[in-house]
Here is the input.
Amino acid sequence: MKEKLVELLTKKQETISCCESLTAGLAMATIASVPGASQVLKGGFVTYQSAMKHILAHVDQMVIDTYGVVSKPCAYQMAKNTLAITQSDYALSFTGNAGPQAMENKKAGLVYCGLASKKGVEVYSFQFEGMKRNDLRQKVVDEMIEILVNQLEME
Here is the structure.
């Protein structure tokens, strides 16, 4: 699916950026593994620690303090702000708890991802059960790439 994403973005002459927390750069690395990705992948931010979401991705500190970093509002701002900062056509955000224990009183496996474009921002939530950390991280990257490919094919 990653090849299809690069193909579609190249054909449309559009770009993508990412703001990653629990995936720690995996989404950008996945896209960059495709030959020709340099034409479409602008870059982005790895905001693994909570403070980096505010510092690099300009997530409002009030959002972090009120809802936590494992939240829909945080994923929304991560995607929206990354789109604006990088001047990309699309931005993906990934925040959540890969486990093994709870974080912010939220179960392991809870993930929020944002997809921002000129049309707006959509946030997707996932609750993965019984997955190993790295399997969960790859699964959520694959899910969001598939969601974006499906959107691009409908445009």
